[in-house]
Amino acid sequence: PASDDGDGPSTAFRIDSEGLQRQIDELASFSDSPAPSVTRVLYSDKDVQARRYIKGIMNQLGLAVREDAVGNIFGRWEGSEAGLGAVGTGSHVDAIPFSGKYDGVVGVLGALEAISLLKRSGFQPKRSLEVIMFTSEEPTRFGISCLGSRLMAGIEELAQSLRMVVDNQNVSFLDAAESAGYKMGPEDLHSVFLKKDSYSAFIELHIEQGPILEKEGIPIGIVTAIAAPASITVEFEGNGGHAGAVLMPARNDAGLAAAELALAIEKHVLESGSIDTVGTTGILQLHPGAINSIPSKSHLEIDVRDIDEKRRNDVIEKIRQSATEISKNRGVMLSEFKIINQDPPALSDKSVIDAMEFAAKQLNLEYKKMISRAYHDSLFIARVSPMGMIFIPCYKGYSHKPEEYASQEDMANGVKVLALTMAKLSLE
Ligand code: GLV
Ligand code: MN
Ligand code: MN
Ligand code: MN
Fold it and tell me: For every residue of 158-200, which 3-state class applies, written as one string?
């Protein structure tokens, strides 16, 4: 099947673009902030509604639906050789505060449309095909990105630390999970670890979240590597006090220490000399947060990424040194400097890249090989399966904001490439 116009067998390879858009819009209505923004945080009521919605579509498609202890959701189309490793695909539907409706969602609803398309076209899988909706790709609630896929990849320290973590309302991970219908004992976290060779390949469809494909007018990106992400939390503590009464020489202002560190981070990142190094202080909180009180505590959350792991680590080391120096110079205490994650980059597997290229060529779609600067669940699934990612253009490269948008045509192209890639890998 090479085109979706005309009659005959190619008609069966037509994407239901309107249906897909309807689903995307419907899912976006499960949000804790007003449209067009989307806010859907792990284990919130809206997240539970979104989960129910995804399971409903999986059931309608006749997939066997299963959930693991933390709520990774699997919809399986059994192949004729069900004992072989499956071909997996999927993404996430959690959304950071005031973001858009396409990040992650295209890779879940689009994957389900790809399955539907293969079913409609009469395809018979040999290896089973499986759509995964990962739990909490975004770090919003517990500070841990790609929570579900990290656990699936068998990271023991995470299974340990998840027993202890709390959100900013002091709700524990285990209690939050239970409130969403996932009651588990601490030992159950290990049951999320994937068995060896569960997947022979994993492919994630995602909007680019960058401007390249749109600018160059290329419909498909084939991802060859995912950049290395890291995140750090820092806290300073000072004496605080009255904003009028405490004179400047007597102060040790934790807020100014934070401001100085945020600027130092920008400087260290720029001094790497590489356009590929990025650093962001996305959270900066002051306590007590009153106009007439000197900040006695500050809390920063810092995101640092690079395609070069060593260069990123060098920046992290400089941030650590700056934090120590600033605390000395300002007489504040550096009460926390914690590296939350410091992940290596991941490479796509040649077998999956080859299949994606084959599919794009079959469909007469121009493609470009590129790296992913955003992270994805694929970063961790790559540890337990050959991995590849398909990117589609998005408007001006916008993401993590309400203006995020991908056209129906671009989504349809991505779904077709995904379907054909999965079909090919299923028969291998
Ligand atoms: C994922 O959302 C990322 O921040 O790359
Ligand atoms: Mn995101
Ligand atoms: Mn995403
Ligand atoms: Mn992401």
Answer: HHHHCCCCECCCCCEHHHHHHHCCCCCCHHHHHHHCCCCCCEE
Q: Is the previous residue joined to 288 through a cis bond, with omega within 30 degrees of 0?
A: yes
Residue range(s) of every CATH 3.30.70.360 domain in the chain: 229-342
Q: Which CATH code, of 3.30.70.360, 1.20.58.2190, 3.80.10.10, 3.30.70.980, is assigned to 229-342? A: 3.30.70.360
Return the number of other C-beta atoms located less than 10 Å from residue 215's C-beta. Answer: 11
Strands 387-392 and 220-226: antiparallel
Residue appearing with tokens 């890291």: 230
Look up the CATH number of domain 8-227+345-426. Answer: 3.40.630.10
**C-alpha distance from residue 9 to each of 12, 13, 61, 104 (Å):** 6, 7, 21, 31
Q: 214-235, pLDDT tens digit by residue? A: 999 999 999 999 999 999 999 9
CA atoms of 298 and 281, how far apart (whole Å) = 13
Residue range 380-410, pLDDT digits in tens: 999 999 999 999 999 999 999 999 999 999 9
240 CA → ligand 4 middle, Å? 38
Binding pocket residue ranges, ligand 1, CB within 6 Å: 138, 374-375
pLDDT at 12: 54
The preferred substitution site among 400, 401, 404 for testing ligand 1, maximizing ligand atoms within 8 Å of CB, is 400
Indicate which atom in ligand 1 lies nearest the CA of residue 375.
5
Residue spans in the chain of domains classed CATH 3.40.630.10: 8-227+345-426
- Sign of dihedral through CA atoms 95, 100, 103, 106? positive
> What pTM, to 2 d.p., does this model score?
0.94
Q: How do residues 262-316 score in pLDDT, each as one tens digit?
A: 999 999 999 999 999 999 999 999 999 999 999 999 999 999 999 999 999 999 9
- Distance from the CA of 50 to the center of ligand 1, in angstroms? 20
* Displacement of CA 62 from its chain's centroid (Å): 27
How far apart are the CA of 399 and the centre of ligand 3, in A? 9
Amino acid at 363: L
Query: pLDDT digit string (tens) for 157-206?
Result: 999 999 999 999 999 999 999 999 999 988 899 999 999 999 999 999 99
> Of the ligands numbered here, which is closest to the C-alpha atom of 139?
1
